[in-house]
Amino acid sequence: MRQYLASIWRFLSHLYASIWRFLSHLARSFSASCSLYRHNIDDNFVQRQP
Prior knowledge:
By secondary structure, this protein is mostly helical. The chain has one helix spanning 2-48. It starts with a helix and ends with a helix.
């Protein structure tokens, strides 16, 4: 029984770690694309000024 619980715990912790890594990667790429988007908007705005 203890072996069963240990294997379940190991599986859940591994799952949680992989999900957390995926979410942090997603958030990092999302913030990078947002900053890139803002940078492009700023460039366009500056170019439009006479």
